């Protein structure tokens, strides 16, 4: 797996990371969603440099110009519900690609083991496509692995790019053993700890609840 940790270089990305972590600022759900969306845009810009390009000629009012544009066939798949703002950020940049959605949630957490349920999946063909798999919080990695096990049954993927806002080191190491070696992981920042419930520390809390309100347990 190829890890791209954007926090290794200072950029405006740090401002958005600070705001989604700040316990006071994150009370503004609309701003929280917008910051996740912005982070998705930045991740996509960096990711685009790893794609294949082709030359096309555009006709301007004053002449012709050759421009290199992305030629790959891409599909976004977001993990519901927390992945929706990140999905929008990706779609802002890759606005003409196909979309997929999948549910994956932790049903229980016992003795360090998660039971992950995947109850909903809607997707176009994934055969020979490049998959952009969006999940803002990469904690234990169990949800992403469960999602991948579902996705790989319906198509022979050309490549996978995982996009996450915050990842835990344990989760990164876990998914390395389950995803293909040519998978790319794009992450805005990395934290080193998980608590006994499998939440990232210091993290930011529950991204789904912060974006869309608290859910019933």
Please summarize what this structure is.
Helix content is 29%, strand content 35%. The protein is α/β, with parallel strands linked by helices.
Unreliable residue stretches: none
Rg over alpha carbons: 18 Å
CATH architecture: 3-Layer(aba) Sandwich
Structural class: alpha/beta
Work out the helicity level.
25-40%
Could you describe the largest sheet, including whether it forms a barrel?
8 strands, mixed
Q: How much beta, percentage-wise?
A: 25-35%
Structural shape: globular
N-C termini distance: 34 Å
Mean pLDDT: 92
How many structural domains does the protein architecture include?
1
Remind me, CATH topology? Rossmann fold
Order of helices and strands: EHHEEEHEEEEEEHEHEEEH
Number of E strands: 14
CATH class category: Alpha Beta
Alpha plus pi helix count: 6
Structure description:
This protein is an alpha/beta fold and 217 residues long. The chain has a single domain, classed as Rossmann fold, CATH 3.40.50.2020. Helices cover 29% and strands 35% of the residues. The chain has six helices and 14 strands. The chain has helices spanning 13-21, 29-48, 84-93, 142-151, 169-176, 207-212; strands at residues 2-5, 53-60, 63-70, 74-80, 98-103, 105-110, 113-117, 121-122, 130-134, 137-138, 159-168, 184-191, 193-194, 200-201. The strands form four sheets. Strands 1, 4, 5, 8, 9, 10, 11 and 12 form an eight-stranded mixed sheet that branches. The chain has a two-stranded antiparallel sheet with strand order 2-3. Helix 1 (13-21) runs antiparallel to helix 2 and helix 2 (29-48) packs across helix 3 (84-93). The longest helix has 20 residues, at 29-48. The chain starts with a strand and ends in a 5-residue tail after the last helix.
């Amino acid at each position: 797996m190829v890890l791209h940790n954007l926090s290794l270089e200072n950029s405006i990305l740090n401002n958005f990371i600070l705001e989604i972590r700040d316990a006071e600022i994150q009370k503004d759900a609309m701003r929280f969603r917008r910051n996740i969306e912005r982070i998705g845009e930045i991740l996509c810009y960096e990711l685009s440099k790893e794609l294949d390009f082709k030359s096309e000629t555009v006709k301007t009012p004053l002449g012709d110009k050759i421009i290199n544009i992305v030629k790959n066939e891409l599909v976004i798949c977001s993990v519901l519900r927390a992945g929706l703002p990140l999905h929008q950020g990706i779609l802002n940049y890759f606005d003409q690609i196909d979309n997929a959605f999948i549910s994956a949630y932790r049903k229980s957490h016992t003795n360090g083991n998660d039971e992950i349920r995947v109850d909903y999946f809607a997707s176009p063909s994934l055969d020979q496509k490049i998959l952009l798999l969006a999940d803002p919080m990469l904690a234990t990695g169990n949800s992403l692995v469960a999602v991948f096990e579902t996705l790989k049954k319906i198509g022979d993927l050309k490549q996978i790019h995982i996009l996450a806002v915050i990842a835990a080191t344990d989760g990164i190491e876990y998914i390395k053993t389950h995803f293909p070696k040519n998978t790319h992981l794009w992450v805005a920042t990395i934290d080193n700890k998980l608590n006994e419930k499998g939440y990232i520390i210091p993290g930011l809390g529950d991204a789904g609840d912060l974006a869309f309100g608290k859910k019933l347990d």
